């Protein structure tokens, strides 16, 4: 293996901000916040979604929008009517 070309491998704890669950692992990611766990300094990385909070892994269904995006837009803003003819270009 060549020296000085590989990223540094560090102890990291990923924290799910929704549930608070912690995943202790190793990674090349670095973070400004650190925490000592079992005498070892870990970088703390906050995650919005992990396997602890994602609906696919938890089995909890979320509301799925069945209304189409175009229909939803037209319902909200109404239909836009254009005046007849082509727009005039300034020359």
Give an overview of the whole structure.
This protein is of the alpha+beta class. It is about 15% helix and about 25% strand. It has helices at about 55-60, 70-75; strands at about 10-15, 20-25, 35, 40-45. The chain has a four-stranded mixed β-sheet with strand order 2-1-4-3, with no helix packed on it. β1 (about 10-15) and β2 form a beta hairpin. The longest helix has 9 residues, at about 70-75. The model has no long low-confidence stretch (mean pLDDT about 80).
How would you summarize what this structure contains?
The chain has helices at residues 55-58, 69-77; strands at residues 10-16, 22-27, 34-37, 40-47.
Question: How much helical structure, as a percent, in the residues?
Answer: 10-25%
> What structural class do the secondary elements suggest?
alpha+beta
> Average pLDDT, to the nearest integer?
78
**Percent of residues in beta strands?**
25-35%
Helix and strand run: EEEEHH
What Rg is obtained from the alpha carbons, in whole angstroms?
A: 25 Å
Q: Compute the number of helices.
A: 2
Strand order of the largest sheet: 2-1-4-3
Number of strands: 4
Overall spatial form: elongated
Largest sheet: 4 strands, mixed
The unreliable regions are none
N→C terminal distance: 66 Å
Task: Describe this protein with a few key phrases.
alpha+beta; 91 residues; 4 strands; elongated
């Amino acid at each position: 293996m060549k020296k000085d070309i590989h990223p540094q491998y560090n102890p990291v704890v990923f924290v799910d901000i929704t549930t608070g669950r912690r995943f202790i692992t190793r990674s090349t990611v670095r973070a400004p916040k650190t925490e000592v766990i079992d005498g070892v300094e870990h970088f703390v990385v906050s995650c919005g979604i992990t396997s602890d909070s994602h609906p696919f892994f938890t089995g909890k269904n979320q509301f799925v929008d069945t209304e189409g995006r175009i229909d939803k837009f037209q319902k909200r803003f109404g239909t836009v009517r254009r005046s007849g003819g082509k727009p005039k270009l300034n020359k």
